[in-house]
Specification:
Elements (H helix, E strand, L loop, with lengths): L7 H22 L6 H14 L3 E5 L2 H11 L7 E5 L5 H8 L3 E5 L10 H7 L4 E7 L8 H10 L3 E5 L7 E2 L2 E2 L6 E5 L13 E5 L2 H10 L4 E3 L2 E2 L10 H10 L3 H18 L14 E2 L5 E4 L3 H10 L16 H4 L8 H9 E4 L7 H16 L1
Parallel strand pairs: 2-3, 2-4, 4-5, 5-8
Antiparallel strand pairs: 1-9, 6-7, 6-12, 8-9, 10-11, 13-14
Helix pairs in contact: 1-8, 2-8, 3-4, 3-7, 9-13
Length: 366
């Protein structure tokens, strides 16, 4: 049995008629930037997420960067970020001119630890970025209380978590902004790069719209230095086709995750429990295993595609290690050595998961 890590071609085939029709309408209209498809998508996303406004941009990285810029976080400021996340979270802080300060994972979780956030606080700290890694919501209440007591902005990095919920509210609606990614592999993926910012502060939303379009306030009137960070109409049209299917796809991912937990219960694989009051969207199903590298090779020999997210914590990356010497974040470092992402996507057949579970048991018996 050949099992890929992801099947984007299959997803396209499922929606081919709708996507082709939507794209053709954009071609026939001849408006490719900042037009009706973008406006409609922003409205639909705001309704879906539960935010007052959504501002579409050209990537999840820019969603973070523009959030920081709009909040006037810059040189001389610190922003606390998790060490165990994709590089872009910390990269956006540096691109804004600020300094990322790294926090460890919560015990038994992949997400950021509130106690480690407290230890990372400095007199220059202006914000905390909470990453809902692999589609599992962060326990936000302790972070909200911490940020409120220290007059800090809470920014949500929801790049992998669209559709997830925390105490019956959509992820991305808790922070001053919520940053989303529509990279093709995401649960709601475009056919190229794309992103969005959820925001319920009208003045901040106005500034974000200005910043994404060269700081433009009116036609050929630029009130500040901005960015070229617009989502094109083709991607907006594709995302509008996919959005009504997202809840169903996420429900299928939860069913598959439950099958994985059953298939792997008698193995050395481990994974975080879903926190009470949260609904995960399982962007990835990531386990830990003490023989990760050997297991990955064994599964590859049996035509099972897996991935490691992420093999190097941010504080150990060459781009940050020299500016952050001597930092020890043991949980993040241990996870980097043990995590393995198993295949998960809505069309994955249940028998594939049972097969993977049997292979892992076979590997451990050998």
């Amino acid at each position: 049995m050949i099992i890929p890590q992801l099947d984007l071609a299959g997803e396209y085939q499922q929606l081919r008629a709708e996507i082709d029709a939507a794209v053709q309408q954009v071609f026939l209209k001849g408006a490719f930037i900042d037009d009706e498809e973008n406006a409609a998508l922003e409205y639909e996303l705001a309704e879906y997420i539960g935010a007052a406004e959504v501002i579409c941009v050209n990537s999840g990285t820019d969603a973070l960067l523009l959030s920081l810029k709009a909040l006037e976080i810059s040189a001389g400021d610190d922003v606390i970020v998790p060490a165990f996340t994709f590089f872009a979270t910390a990269e956006a802080v540096s691109l804004a001119g600020a300094r990322p300060c790294f926090a460890d994972c919560a015990p038994g979780q992949y997400n950021i630890d509130a106690d480690s956030v407290r230890q990372a606080l400095t007199p220059r700290t202006k914000a905390v970025i909470a990453v809902h890694l692999f589609g599992q919501p962060v326990d936000l209440l302790p972070l909200q209380e911490f940020c409120a007591s220290h007059n800090l902005w809470l920014i949500e990095d929801a790049a992998q978590a669209i559709g997830a919920c925390y105490h019956d509210r959509g992820i991305g609606s808790f922070g001053i902004t919520g940053a989303f990614s529509f990279y093709p592999t995401k649960n709601l993926g475009a056919f190229g790069d794309g992103g969005a910012i959820a925001c319920s502060d009208p003045d901040l939303a106005t500034r974000l719209r200005r910043l994404r379009n060269h700081g433009r306030q009116g036609r050929y009137q630029h009130s500040e230095i901005g960015f070229n960070s617009r989502l094109d109409e083709l991607q907006a049209a594709i995302l509008r086709v996919k959005l009504p299917y997202l809840d169903g796809w996420n429900a299928q991912r939860r069913q598959l995750a439950a099958l994985y937990r059953q298939a792997l219960q008698n193995t050395e694989c481990d994974w975080p429990a879903v926190l009470e009051g949260t609904v995960s969207v399982h962007h990835q199903f990531v386990v830990t295993h003490p023989q990760r590298n050997a297991l990955q090779l064994f599964l590859a020999e049996h035509n099972i595609s897996t991935a490691v997210f992420y093999p190097i914590p941010c504080h150990c990356q060459p781009a940050f290690s020299e500016s952050h010497p001597g930092i020890s974040l043991p949980l993040a470092e241990c996870l980097a050595d043990q995590v393995l992402a198993l295949p998960i996507y809505p069309a994955l057949p249940p028998e594939a998961i049972r097969h993977i579970g049997e292979l892992i048991q076979d590997f451990e018996q050998r």
